[in-house]
Amino acid sequence: MPRVLLITGGAGGIGAAMAHRFAATGGRVLVADIDEETGRAVASAVGGLFVRTDVSNEDDNRRAVEAAISEFGGLDLVHLNAGTGGAGGAGDDFDLSRYRRTLAVNLDGTMFGLRAALPALAAHGGGAVVVTASLAGLGPATFDPVYSATKHAIVGLVRSLAPAWSDAGITINAICPGFVDTQMITGLQPLITAGGLAVATPDEVAAAVESLASSGVTGEAWTIQAGTPPTRFPFPAIDLPKAR
Ligand code: NAD
User: What is the Cα–Cα distance from 10 to 13, expressed in whole angstroms?
Assistant: First the structure.
């Protein structure tokens, strides 16, 4: 089990559950979030450290990684979990600023987080990265097409980058939850209830992240849905032979 966790979106439902779960086994936690008040509260509750981080800013990502290493003497697990949505569709409901924000947080935030974390993990002998994607990153989500597009992008990014870092002792995987009981689905609750859809607890997702991080696999996307064991997304890589 890794000993130092950096979690982005650590003030939110899944992030806070992960922080609590990790700290409960004696791990040290750096909570990185744009929400200072809640982020500090989560960090304080788990005896961890809060670093105000806008994941869409590359320097912020670097500062969070540096703080984890300088404060805790290393870094073992990086959970790139911050996310947002709500840009609407391609008609009158399209919201340009939400569109830019969704791409910046979900896609830039993941790329910048990886760029900050991977060299640092490599320099400290390896570790694990888990990115929170979504079931909406493996199939269509008609209620939020732009969100779904960014989550597909994250799954492709993670699975495509992973092999290049395995020699450095780093695994990179994506967790793809269905609906999870957090603030993010508040507006969808009536439809979720009407559809009789399963809703996982944030801790179920955190448990799956722990399993994925300690499994030793890399370049995989695991789905997690309420009451169902994690399932590996099956499509294989499009590969070229290695250059001699
Ligand atoms: P949440 O809204 O409770 O948490 C999201 C967190 O991300 C918040 O703490 C927020 O402050 C933080 N955040 C937003 N923008 C940020 C930024 N620019 N920089 C740093 N932090 C930022 O929702 P959640 O459900 O816990 O979401 C966590 C992740 O899980 C997200 O990536 C989300 O897309 C994903 N997810 C959620 C569900 C669900 O049904 N709740 C399903 C699948 C995937």
Answer: 8
Domain, as residue range, for 53: 4-228
- Rounded to the nearest angstrom, the distance between the alpha carbon of 239 and the centre of ligand 1 is 32
Tell me whether residue 233 is in a domain.
no
Integer Cα distance of 168 and 56 in angstroms: 26
HSE, CB side, 13 Å, CA atoms: give it for residue 19: 31
Does residue 115 belong to any structural domain of this protein? Answer: yes
Strands 228-232 and 221-225: antiparallel
User: What separation in Å is there between the alpha carbon of 77 and the centre of ligand 1?
Assistant: 18
* pLDDT tens, residue by residue, 160-196: 999 999 999 999 999 999 999 999 999 999 999 999 9
Atom 44 (ligand 1): residue with closest C-alpha?
A: 134
Q: Ligand 1 centre and the CA of 51: distance in Å?
A: 16
pTM: 0.97
Which atom of ligand 1 is nearest to 202's Cα? 26
CA of residue 105 relative to chain centroid, distance: 11
Structure letter (DSSP) for residue 236: P
What does the pLDDT look like over 203-235, one tens digit per residue?
A: 999 999 999 999 999 999 999 999 888 899 888
- The CATH number for 149's domain is 3.40.50.720
Closest CA relative to residue 120, chosen from 158, 161, 56, 67: 67
Helix ranges (H only) for 47-182 are: 58-72, 96-102, 109-123, 145-165
Q: Which residue has the tokens 């801790």?
A: 203
Distances in Å between the alpha carbon of 167 and those of 122, 210, 229, 236? 9, 22, 29, 20
